[in-house]
Each structure stands twice: as structure tokens, then as C-alpha cells.
Amino acid sequence: MYRLLGVALAATLSATLAVTLTGCGSGGPASDDTLEIWIRQLPDSDSAKTAKRLADAFTKASGVPTKVVAIFDDFETKLNQQASQRHLPDIVINDTAQLGAMHTQGWLREVDRNALAGGDKLSDLAWKAAMAGDGKYYGAPFSAQAFALIIRKDWREKVGMEQPRTWQDLAALAAAFTRKDPDGDGKADTSGFVIPAGTKRGYASWYASSLVYANGGDFVRPTGGGRFAASAGDPRTVEAVRFLQDQFCKARTVNPGAVSNDTTVTHEVFEKGQGGIYLVGPYVLARFVKSIGTDRIEVVPVPKGPSGGPGTLGEGENVYLMAGSGMQDAQKKFAEFAVSPEGQRIGMNKDAGGAIVRLPVNTTVDLAGERQDPRWKVFQEAYANAVYAPPVPNWAPIRQDSADTINAVWADCSSDVKAAMDALDTKLTQELQSQKAS
């Protein structure tokens, strides 16, 4: 998944280590002539195999040997361990939301947007996600994604309802899926929403973000000059979180156990027919087409909220050129290949599973020409209004604090959402101050 931000990078690494990494040229992966590429994917997965094909194509084109290392569990922890040993990989393909954390550790080389071959062909929105708080770029955009609703079409037709166009429609469809036996088995064993509402890696906040943005809200807003202010207590943000609390607590249309689940579990809940509405990115579309059936699912835009929108969470991956490499020219060449039309097409992997490029960031690549499934177009259109995590020095603790608060108000139906979000505002203000970003 693609794809959420990981556990916060360990704060115990000192500034001295960061400086040392920036200048080290020996003792790391750069000590030989093989470009080491790390990607946050399950080993031996289809996505890892796609990454290997990308690297092999780069080697064929450039003559530079490569080694792909696919790691999913504890990716950031293992990256931290490599940093402590002054043995960072040459390239890391990782979430856009990790840029701030890695940059503040001194792990990333600056990328000159104008000097990167093909950089002028990449979308401005994707470049925005490669920019740190200092206004400089520390990654090459590689993949993008926005969010939409994947809905059990056969269930919707069974209960005789139209595609949801408002939040009221969405709540009504969820209620019908919960109470009208859409799978026809005669049992009360289905839910409307399936939600990864746990706190691990900030999932509750990650999920809620798209509805927050669809309602015109936010967690942190820019105030100018690279500074930010907390906005979790904004009425539009509160309204979105309260809408979801109502689904958990009043309408009871959310799958049981959601407050403890991550995306791995939630994917399976949706596949097993335990719920019929999943707000998620396009990276699971091919999987669900295969496991559920192409005629049984549809993709619908996230409805505009009553107080704002349209909007959805924007995410993706950057190619990060890691500090300390002795293969700086090869690093740049790999980044240029990855963002080229050829690199983007390899990463997209057409309609098959294992895509590591969800939506292409290269504007010369025709999505419809690469993928025949028209449902991808819904995600592409949503991307025009996508909202990326702001370029604060470290987004990880902000998302984690937000997830802890949101999870708590969904798990405890007696919780006052406004009071909880106001308290979160105070906590986020303190976090921004500690990052010298307020």
C-alpha cells in the first residue's frame, strides 16, 4: 500500500550522526559498484517483482548493476539501523509523507528539479510532494494516488439504491448494506463501511483524512513563510470526524473490530463480503477485481462534504537519493529513468497486480492507454483535488497524535468529538513548536 507513513523515525539519532551520514562515502552500499535500491513492499510480492523489472530495465539501459531490497515490516526501523551503521542504501522508494522525517535526519540529497532530465514533464502537484519545509526538493516524484470509494455494486443493486452523491446518501447506503441482507444469505452478517481504524502507523487519521479534506477541513494549515498552525479544532474537521463517529456509534454501520484493524486486515474483511464500502486508494483495485469479481465492484468519487470539498487525501512515493552514496551519478540516472515514460509504464504494470506506480506523475504518460479498466479514471480525476501532507519537518508524530485521538472517539461512543479535537489542536500546536514550524 501502498501505502501509509510508517513508524516515526527514531529520534535518538543525533545531529552529529546526520552530519556524518551526509559526508560519508565509505563503509556503506556505495563501497561497490552496485546501486542498492530499497522499496517498502513485501518480499517476493508482485510489487517487489515489478520493482525488480524496473531495476533490470535501468541496468539494461545504463549498464549500472542494481540490487533491489524489498522490506515491508519495520521498514523505517531497519532503515534507521542502516543509518546508525553508516550503511544507507543508495536509493529508497518510499512514501511522500516520510520526506520530512528523513530530511531532518540528514539522510537525503537535494534534487535539482531543473537539472533532472524529464523533470519538466512531471506534474506540479507531484513535485509539491517532494518539497520540504525549506522550499527545496529532496526526492524525485515517482507515483501518485488519490482516494475513492470501492463499493460492492452487486449489493447496491440488490438493495435498490443509486451511487452515493452526498454524505447523506453514503450513510443511507451503509445502513442498507448493514440491515437489508445484501448478500442474500439470510443472516445479519454484513456492514456498510469497512474501516482500518486502528492506531498503528496512524491508520485512523489516514482513513479520516479524505473525508476531512472532502469537507474543507484539515489537521494543519500553512500560515506562510514555511510556518503552520494546528486546525484539528476547525468546525469542518470536527464535522467529518463526528460523521464517522455516528457511523460507529449511532448507525452502527462499521465492520466489527474496525477500531483495532490495519489495512491488511481490512482488505480481507472487504474481500470476505463482511462490508460493502471501502474508502481506499487504487493500489487494491486489481486485487479486488481478481478476488471479488470485476462485475461486483465499482469505484465512486468521495462525495463532497456538507461544508466543503471536493477533496481527498493525496499520497504517493518519491525516489529518494540517499546521502553518503559514492554513486551519485548513478543515483541521478536511476531517478531520471524511474520518472521517464518507460520507467513509469513498467511501474504501472498495466491492469495487473503489483503496480508500484499507481497514477503516473509523468504527464506524457496516458493512463487510459496503459490501463483498460475505466475505474482507474475515477482515481485520476480525484487526484486533481488531492491534498498531500504539508511539508512540516516531521509529519509522522502529527498523524500519529491525530490517529490516537480519532481512534479514541470512535471507540468510546460517549466521547465528545469537539472537545477531543480541541485537545488535539493543543497537542499539534506543541508538536509544531517543537519542530520549529509554528
From TrEMBL:
Signal peptide: 1-18
GO cellular component, one term: ATP-binding cassette (ABC) transporter complex, substrate-binding subunit-containing
Protein name: Multiple sugar transport system substrate-binding protein
Taxonomy, superkingdom: Bacteria
Gene Ontology molecular-function annotations: maltose binding
InterPro entries for the chain: SBP
Biological source species: Nonomuraea pusilla
Keywords annotated in UniProt: Signal, Sugar transport, Transport
Pfam families xrefs: SBP_bac_1 (PF01547)
GO biological process: maltodextrin transmembrane transport; maltose transport
Family statement drawn from the similarity comment of this UniProt entry: Belongs to the bacterial solute-binding protein 1 family.
PANTHER family the record matches: MALTOSE-BINDING PERIPLASMIC PROTEIN, MALTOSE_MALTODEXTRIN-BINDING PERIPLASMIC PROTEIN
